[in-house]
Amino acid sequence: MTFTYDGAERPALHDVSLSVAPGERLALVGPTGAGKSTLAKLLSRLYDPSHGHVSFDDVDLRLASLDSLRQRVVVVPQEGFLFGGTVRDNIRVARPGATDADVAEALDAIGVLARFEELPDGLDTEVRERGSRL
After folding, report:
1. CB 109 within 8 A of CB 102
2. Average pLDDT per consecutive 10 residues, the chain (134 residues; last block may be shorter)
3. What is the 3-state secondary structure (H, E, C) of 52-112?
């Protein structure tokens, strides 16, 4: 797979091939400009390759619905961002229909549920932009 930004003379990623086994987690680590963010955007279909394709289980991602893909692929940006509102509101940004149980499960999965439950109002604690109240 190759990806070139509009107007660029050289590809940002050239002839990239990557395999991840089912259930395996992938962390992209490297120096600035190595293509980590570009690859993450390709994996989540924020971009499509200039040549070749990105696939999961031999299925071209362009054939999957964006809703289905967004439920299965998570991109964690290099710099975190919190919106004004509660902890619960911020978790629901990615999945507005998430139940309270879904929110708790997500926080528990990354090992921070107990920490957030210790806040003065638990998951209903106001965080303000950029987490200034945390």
Report:
1. no
2. 94 91 80 87 90 87 85 70 84 88 91 90 83 61
3. CCCEECCEEHHHCCHHHHHHHCCCCCCCCCCCCCEHHHHHCCCCCCCCHHHHHHHHHHCCC
| CA end-to-end distance (rounded Å), the chain | 41
Contact partners, residue 84, CB within 8 Å, separation at least 6 = 126, 127, 128, 129
Give which of 46, 70, 75, 45 is closest to 60, Cα–Cα: 45
The pLDDT of residue 134 is 63
pTM for this predicted structure: 0.56
**What pLDDT score was predicted for residue 34?**
87
pLDDT value for 6: 93
The whole-angstrom separation of Cα 90 and Cα 103 is 10
CA 82 to chain CA centroid, nearest Å = 14
Which pLDDT does position 18 carry in this prediction?
87
Say how far apart CA 126 and CA 32 lie, in whole Å.
Answer: 33
Rounded Cα distance between 119 and 62, Å, is 42
